[in-house]
Amino acid sequence: MAAQTVEQLIQEGVRGRRVLVRSDLNVPLDDSGRSRRVTDDGRIRASLPVLQKLSDAGARVIVMAHLGRPKGEPDPQFSLRPAAERLAELAPFEVEQADDTVGASARSKAENLAEGGVLILENVRFDARETSKDEAERGSFADELARLTESAGGAQGAYVDDAFGAVHRKHASVYDIAYRLPAYQGDLVRTELDVLDTLTSTPERPYVVVLGGSKVSDKLAVIDNLMGQADYLLIGGGMVFTFLAALGHDVGSSLLEQDQIDTVKRYLDSATRTECEFVLPTDIVVASKFAADAEHEVAAADSLEQSSFGSSAVGLDIGPASAKDFADHILSARTVFWNGPMGVFEFEAFAGGTRTVAEALTGTKGFTVVGGGDSAAAVRSLGFDDSQFGHISTGGGASLEYLEGKELPGLTALGK
Questions:
Q1: What is the 8-class DSSP label of residue 402?
Q2: Catalytic annotation on 153?
Q3: Exactly one of 45, 190, 215, 334 is catalytic; which is it?
Q4: Which residue in 373, 395, 396, 410 is the catalytic one?
Q5: Residue 43 among the catalytic residues
Q6: What are the pLDDT digits (tens) for 126-178?
Q7: Nearest to 176 by CA among 161, 188, 156, 193
Q8: Which of 307, 299, 312 is nearest to 252 (CA)?
Q9: Catalytic-role residue among 22, 36, 43, 180
Q10: What is the pLDDT of residue 203?
Q11: 154 is catalytic
């Protein structure tokens, strides 16, 4: 059975009803000053449309979200207050924040919430039951969340899941709550599913997948699944050094997952049988140490230790020749999926590969998808606008698990 949509909920009528919305407000914060500031509000902006629709329709909207990984109890450094304040700055509707999740503050503010108002509950992970492995514990928390939607007038509450980035978690605010209230699929979830289904079932060709990030172990299942679908797999970031080592090349002091070398060898050996070509860098920007101001130079990818840094060489970005090669593949593609930066883009000296890949995505005529929080943060920090790409995913780990072919609990609860 197909999931019900938020549009169907609005057509049924939501004026005066309390609607629980699971949003994704898990945004990066700058803690360097006295006040905590949101450094990338992309997920907040992406959450706005559904909240706006419900507010405009007269719903009393109660937002559930998490931030970071608190240990099941209130922790000021993981408070949602900075995200709520940023939402209030962006939104045309009134935004309130509760001081707790299902306590006295949440109950009082939910009860007094005006039509069209939006209430942000405190971080749901401040309650240990949210992430509990015990079904009864999660269920008791979901029951309390559901009671926030109760109305003296008898109007039935509802639940909308608009946080694709959390649908791979069997958590109370994602999974259990969907069995306690009429459940609906938010626009973000629907859009992500449409995009991911395109990537896995009907991509236009040539289909190019660009994978980066630090660890190859994080991407093994994705590689395994996409090898049978993509025409080219372009490998950069820290994970590339395990590939280079699998080919017998020295990688100096670069990041290396020794225990994954045999697996990578098998992938490289089987690539020809799947008609998928791995494209690896031919040059690497190596440095004397991991630091923004480190001495650096370009070295051949198959002999990093022959650089002037010898065995101390640390690879921090793909080289300019490799970046151009990657860009050429992207520019000739009809579908591109990119997950993971090509280097340590936070350091200007090692941002060149990531910048070149991003520029190529903005220049291709094909459908482009930027997936993963690091990739999204990279393109924004390098000055690119979201509108320059076909789709910027908010899914993170959930998107990768979907591409791996896994069943995601949040989608199962919605009826997908």
A1: H
A2: no
A3: 215
A4: 373
A5: yes
A6: 999 999 999 999 999 999 999 999 986 777 899 999 999 999 999 999 999 99
A7: 161
A8: 312
A9: 43
A10: 93
A11: no
